[in-house]
Write a structure and sequence with these properties.
alpha/beta; two-stranded parallel sheet; 15 helices; 14% strand; globular; binds (2S)-2-hydroxybutanedioic acid; L-tyrosine-2-oxoglutarate transaminase activity; Asp_trans; identical protein binding; pyridoxal phosphate
């Protein structure tokens, strides 16, 4: 059975992780996979998480199954964090998933079940795994313009013109905040304009929100998701707690479907639970429970919000310092856009050959499309990385 098998190639992020792990050079710098690092270069367990785990260890009396959709208290807490009061709970079907990727997969599987002919509109560029999952499910997709590489900003006109071609029932994939890989986000006016196009076309937004709290704060980062939730009768959402709770390996995600009312909500919830059953039966519980304990405890929540703010400030400080170091190295404002973008990622505009030179000659690991994780920089590494980028990108 496996004699003639050719293993599928790992994607560019996973390949880079493996190359970095195999590199023996002590001064190597990992600016690849999306993992937050503090100013000391560590990815620590958040203190609020540690405390919640202590509480859970003391209180938990069983590890028996919870339910196909996970713990409703977790779903409720995360729904409220993301959606606030934008939409009544009776309209929102939820299902815990293994990580945000699990939620993306569940949402797209639902689409495939219900409307197999729908086209999934995908921003150019987007997270590599979005394409991989859509292709794996055999769904139709179309690219829409999103990013203006010349000045590092949103291509608003291109995006709106392309999305105007969507048909009723098509799915429009949007990044809730901290666009991966560009760091170029929709501003409130852009979200309003997207809402207009969605209303006109009848296409359904699918919001992947994996970095809530990493851009400008919990409320500001939820604006776009809440805005569309308030305006439209149907919205799909894939949420992740990997980054903002630092729970990467625990795999904490939530798939949400905003529906027109209680009947469709019950049907969507039933389909989600069914899809969980077919894939892995019960979703993981530990990380989800940690999130729920934190969000529902005033003191722990305050502690988590403070830690999250610190992470956000570190990333934004790194952005400003890196842009400044590049300005000094290049004598130009060519990389000035880095300071204004948000989240972990930006595209530095490197060709694949330049990415290779950065890796081979300087031990600096960025993803093949030139995506750089600003959260991987520290005060100590910024000058060397800026020098290398300026030299290699000429
Ligand atoms: C990334 O984009 O680097 C992260 O979301 C990790 C991943 O799974 O690719």
């Amino acid at each position: 059975m496996f004699e003639d098998l050719k293993a599928p190639e790992a994607d560019k992020i996973l390949r880079l992780m493996a190359m970095f792990a195999a590199d023996p050079r002590p001064g190597k710098v990992d600016l690849g996979v999306g993992v937050y690092r503090d100013p000391q270069g560590q990815t620590p367990v958040m203190e609020a998480v540690r405390r919640a785990e202590t509480i859970i260890a003391a209180r938990q009396r069983t590890k028996s199954y919870v339910g196909l959709a996970g713990d409703p208290a977790f779903a409720d807490a995360l729904r409220r964090l993301i959606l606030g009061d934008a939409v009544p709970a009776e309209r929102v079907a939820t299902c815990a998933t293994p990580g945000g990727t699990g939620a993306v997969r569940q949402a797209l599987e639902m689409v495939q079940r219900i409307t197999p002919d729908a086209t999934i509109w995908v921003p150019t560029p987007t997270w590599v795994n979005h394409h991989a999952i859509i292709d794996h499910l055999g769904q139709k997709s179309r690219a829409y313009r999103y990013y203006d590489a010349a000045d590092g900003t949103l291509d608003r006109e291109g995006m709106l013109a392309d999305l105007a071609q969507a048909r009723a029932g098509d799915i429009v994939l949007l990044h809730g905040c901290c666009h991966n890989p560009t760091g170029a986000d929709l501003q409130p006016d852009d979200w309003r304009a997207v809402g207009d196009v969605l209303e006109q076309t009848g296409a359904i937004p699918f919001i992947d929100i994996a970095y809530l709290g990493f851009a400008d704060g919990l409320e500001a980062d939820a604006f776009g998701t809440r805005h569309l939730a308030e305006r439209l009768s149907e919205v799909l959402i894939a949420a992740s707690c990997s980054k903002n709770f630092g729970l990467y390996r625990e795999r904490v995600g939530l798939c949400m479907a905003i529906t027109s009312g209680p009947g469709p909500r019950a049907a969507a919830a039933g389909l989600m639970a069914h899809l969980n059953r077919q894939s892995y039966a019960f979703p993981p519980d530990h990380g989800a429970r940690v999130v729920q304990v934190i969000l529902d405890d005033r003191e722990l929540r305050g502690m988590w919000e403070d830690e999250l703010s610190l992470m956000r400030e570190t990333m934004n400080t790194n952005r400003a310092a890196f842009a400044e170091a590049l300005r000094a190295e290049t004598g130009s404002d060519r990389f000035g856009f880095l300071a204004g973008q948000r989240g972990m990622f930006s595209l530095i505009g490197a060709t694949p050959a330049q990415v290779e030179t950065l890796r081979e000659d300087h031990g600096i690991y960025v993803v093949g499309d030139g995506r750089l994780n600003v959260a991987g920089l520290t005060k100590d590494t910024i000058p060397g990385v800026a020098r290398a980028v300026a030299r290699v990108l000429g």
